[in-house]
Write a structure and sequence with these properties.
It is built from 9 helices and no strands. The protein is mainly α and about 180 residues long. It is globular.
Length: about 180
């Protein structure tokens, strides 16, 4: 049994309250949410820069826990911090092209892993072509699994606007991927 197992049954709200003074509770929050934060960062800044963004996110979370009032769910707050960190990272590297280098292939099936890495790279490129608002809404829905109401809360826009952005973003992605030769 690990230390994180002691915190596993706790909900995010309880962990946040404990994490203000307990580094182990904060570690449990990081363990619980790091993969989702990394996925969201990778699609917004590229896989090569995602690790740095994740680190920035959890530093910001740690610093801001004392001021987190709980008006929104912790996950909503975390997604907003993640998106803000992504935009800061993108702004800081405006002169550097998007890193779409495929991840190394898994040793068990190099051909399949290479195809998957190529597809992920193309999808990341396609997402980068979307306007910021559409990319944000689509990535929160498809990668983070948030429902429309949660996305509206994270982005601060009306529910209908979220639905419209996702619909337009998906259509633009389909068109871009189709032109790139990717078939469903």
């Amino acid at each position: 049994m690990t230390l994180n197992d002691d915190y596993a049954p706790l909900c995010d709200a309880d962990l946040v309250r404990l994490a203000v003074r307990d580094d182990h509770a904060f570690e449990a929050l990081v363990t619980r949410h790091a993969a989702a934060v990394h996925r969201l960062a990778a699609v917004n800044v590229g896989p090569g820069a995602a690790d740095d963004v994740v680190q920035d996110v959890f530093i910001a979370v740690h610093r801001g826990l004392g001021g987190f009032r709980g008006d929104a769910q912790f996950g909503t707050w975390l997604h907003r911090i993640t998106l803000n960190a992504c935009y800061r990272a993108l702004k800081a590297r405006q002169d550097i092209p998007f890193d779409d280098t495929p991840e190394p292939a898994a040793p068990h099936d190099p051909a399949h892993a290479g195809e998957q890495a190529d597809l992920r790279g193309r999808l990341a490129q396609a997402l980068q072509t979307l306007p910021r608002e559409q990319r944000e809404a689509v990535s929160l829905r498809e990668l983070s699994g948030l429902d429309y109401a949660e996305i509206a809360e994270v982005t601060g826009v009306e529910l209908g606007t979220v639905k419209s952005r996702i619909n337009r973003g998906r259509a633009a992605l389909r068109e871009w991927l189709s032109r790139a030769g990717v078939r469903p």
